[in-house]
Amino acid sequence: MTKARRNPLWQPIPCPLSDIEGLESWLGDMAAQGLVPVTIGQNFARFHCSQPKAVRYRLNAKPAPETFLESAPGTPDGEERALAQECGWYYVTAVGDFFLYACEDGDAPELNTDPQVQALSLRYAKRQVFAPAGLLAYWLVTFWVRYAMGVWHTPVIDFVELGWLSFCYLGLLAAALVSVVHNTVLLYRFSARLKRGAEPERHKNWRKGAGRYLVGRVLAALLVLLVLFLRQNVLLDTASRHAILLNAQSGRVLAQKRADERTAPASLTKMMTVLLAIEAEPDLDKQVTLPEDIFPALQTEKASMAGFVPDETVTVRDLLYGAMLPSGAECCEALAQLVSGSEENFAALMNQKAAELGMKNTNFTNATGLTDTEHYSSAADMAKLLQAALHNTTFRTIFTTEHYTTTATAQHPEGVSLTSTLLGKLDGTELPEGAQIEGGKTGYTAAAGLCLASLATVNGKEYILVTLAAPGDHGTEQYNIRDAVHVYRKLADKK
Known about the structure:
Elements: E1 9-12, H1 20-32, E2 35-40, E3 44-49, E4 56-61, H2 78-86, E5 90-95, E6 98-103, H3 115-120, H4 123-149, H5 164-195, H6 210-236, E7 242-247, E8 253-257, H7 269-280, E9 287-289, H8 295-300, E10 313-315, H9 316-324, H10 329-340, H11 343-356, H12 379-389, H13 393-399, E11 403-405, E12 417-419, E13 435-445, E14 449-458, E15 461-470, H14 479-493
Antiparallel strand pairs: 1-3, 2-3, 4-6, 5-6, 7-8, 7-15, 9-10, 11-12, 13-14, 14-15
């Protein structure tokens, strides 16, 4: 007994939609096998299983829209359908820039009897198939032009990881271009034959070019997959679970890895604290006394401290540097109380700022980044924050400072010496010539893992890299810093 076919049934289309004769012939062969088309997409057609029958199919070009901004109609108008029915043809479905008609009457006249008139109706369809060919050609030419200028990116992808993968990309792009051009030529040649008065090839052997067309579709799919892979490739081998790399000037994302997933940001939170304090208190020499009551809880949490003591009076500038460079939690608490009266009120201000910056996966509950289930962010949001904050000259100065000594106080007559938790671990030899890490903010909690937001200059361009949830702790290798060096080195190697 013959096994019953699934209904509906999906079948791959073996020829391009621009191969009018081939597609019409293939649909006729499908009808002879009992498959009636329901819908036809770019790559697959959906069929209804029926009794085998002889059916003729014809593709009628859609009329061109009256204006450039309009699109072609989705279905034929009533007059066109009526004329077709008078000749024994009924409308089936839209196929790209064509309407598909069918006829089961072998004696019915052809739907289009004048080849030259039919050729004129193809003008809109020809313009449509030419567009992807022009776009692919533009990408290919643009790459080589930019390559000659020493600029390693295209409108499709920034080539942060060049080498054999990039040339695979170019090869696939060229193959896709050849395939699209071939499909375009098919339609133009068909139109040219019609203009000469030649009758269409009604029983074209569509199998002849099916293999070549399939190869073209596979190459196009590989091109898409490779582009997606390249966008991730520079970050795939980082230890951090979440990461994002972007151009610091434009904000353009160059590569990302689970960048929108919510996770604990640890002390990267302090970038928001410092930014808000700068915006709220323009007088950086203002004197602030650190409240005694903030210290016990911070000590219990084993939070990182800058080295100030209870009731010590320092400047706002000292607190800003203390919060950023050694990640002093007491500085953040003091700044929060200075700006908003309490950490709770300050957290509300932080969330307001986050909303303004478009940080959609962020919620702050404290000024320090200490663990709280309701305190979360994402690599992408932290990158948005850092990019915006770097436009503030005071923030940028603090963020890129390696060493700072606070003003003298009674408790610290020589001031407190502060060192960046990132820059203090670098000796300047990690990156090749032309690359330098300008500044950064580290972070760590048991829940967040090792985190880092950094700014680097590579070959004259500034980049922001945010990595979250790297393994390890303060006593292990600093995988957050290792990831940053690894990524920036890759950028530097691709001049």
